[in-house]
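Hey,

The postdoc asked me to send both predictions to you directly instead of through the lab channel. I've kept everything plain text so nothing gets mangled by the mail client. Protein one:
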Amino acid sequence: MAEPEAAVAIVHARSIEGGPEPEESVLLIRRTERESDPWSGHWSFPGGRREPQDHDLVETALRELAEECGIVLARDHLEAALPPAMAGRRIGRTMLVAPYLFRARAELPTKLDPEEAAEALWLPLSFVRDPTRHCLTPVPRLPPDRIFPAIELNGVPLWGFTYRVITQWLGLHSTVASGELPGFQAASLLLDFLLAEGMELRYGWIDSTEDPHPVRVARVKGEIPVDAVLAHLALPGNRIPPVSSLEIHSDAIRVMGLNQEEYVIEAG
């Protein structure tokens, strides 16, 4: 199994002041716009690549936190090592990243390195747990027909790797009673929407044998109403979208599930 190349610090502030229930938040930074940074302008956790002098990836996360945010924590603030996750890049290559969860007794002040971070905020976890804050939306620098689950923060979407890590850490994706993966339910609801829009079902879900990775395919007759689908998906729902991304074209919709399984609704 590949080893992570980078690490991020999830600083989890949990204050018991002000009421019987603790107030919880996590630290995010909005990265400075730089052409050399594949995550330029994104909301992210403090973090970066492992350097030769780093003893391990925990040290990488703590070093990056200090360099980018001016926050110095000790190793004994470590709460948990979360499962490594893949982070996509605009240039196409992906990177395996190790997320580390650190505790803080309160929201700490930041002193940002302007070359790395343009803005920082402590995001309340109650905000993340509210399904109405989540939507499916296009993101900067990617085609508008590809949409992602996201939360808008100060006019910029929180999406991608950071969004996935937060929602999975908090256990926000509900299970499906049938035993199917949550992504399949999302794809099935999308198929139901197309049928309600007047499209005709040619055949229901089957497993494709033409792809090297798991793909389930359904087919409808006609042309997919792209604008209507995008408008439908942009509406907030009563649950967190259980998908990684969607691509919507007049001849097909591709749904990527949380486990990178794929569902395709073909049209024609």
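Protein two:
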Amino acid sequence: MRKTCFFVLALELLSFFTTAQVASTYPVRIPVNNSTALADWSELLEFKGYVALSTNVTRQVLNVQKLLFVEDKIVVLDVDTDFEAVRVFDGKTGDYLYDIGKRVKTDDPENGFKGIIDMEWNPDRKFLRLLSRGHLCFTDYALDGTYLGSVKIDHFGDDLVYLGGNKWLMYNEFSSDNPSDSYFLYYYNDQGKITEKKFPYAIKRNGAGYSSAGYLMRSGNNVWFNPTFSDTVYSVAGTKSDARFIADLGPRAVPVARRDSMLFGNELLKYDFLEEGFFSNGRYCVFQCQKSRKISAGIFDGATGRFYESGNLDKTIPFNQLCQGQHVFAKDNETFAIVMPIRFLIRRLKNADRSAWEALAPGLYDLVAATPDDIDNPVLFYFKFK
């Protein structure tokens, strides 16, 4: 799928800390290629618990594209090449509750969705908005699954965030009816009307990467934007976007001249670039990256300027092994979730000290040991920066 690896970064967004002064000008450069050896992330992170999403054989969560934490529930956008689903789980137990909508082949969104790519919750009016490429529309549902209607849009879109009031922001890597109307950011109202367009891109770049990079995400009160194959993360406030962070990816960064042309297949492996996954609580931030063809995770401390990469973690410490999942999502303003398939844990807990894991995450060892081989449900690990 389009999102595979993540970087965890810690950045200082205030003017001063007691330990160091953060640069007063933006963008802040992140020394990705200069990491601290044998780091222990338990010195930086506090483990806040876990939830295993429980499904049966016929309702496996095959790919967690997005997580939303709504009221007492966890809403999962489950996307795979064979099916699409919006699944709802109990927020405390992880038990499967029900699906919202269903995948259909018809052209009527009232019957279900087609080509769903993202979802977003409107906390003001209490409804879930789905971004459906196949129907070129926003489709709205109540949290209990009741269909509320749909509105047509003019572009396929990739990511969707709610800005408050009557405002929505969509990230777009593909065009639609009008290929000359190609922008990364489209501002919509509730009725599906475009009110602003930002970040135009060249027509030749349309569809480049096939959603393998680039994102628009919310964490807390912040909205973050990263265009395809870029090294820069932008902060979005209203219709204004400011470059905040630049990841120094070194000689493997995608050349600027190549960002506007088609990249696909093995060519992607030549380069390092940012992907989807960003969390910020004001001091710490999270985003994803492809680096040296490998999945990596890292923390950048903006107060000290130090960068910590998962490849240099002390993996003999169980805590550090829980920090190496596939995706990261903001849970609330202070906490983020790392998603890890149980099969990863089975490998890590094999021949491990049960007492050490029980002390860190009570019940996790026995849960993994009792999981059948044909079930690969994701486990959500919650972390908060100290």
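Summary for protein two, as requested: The first strand starts at residue 7 and ends at 10.

Thanks,
C.
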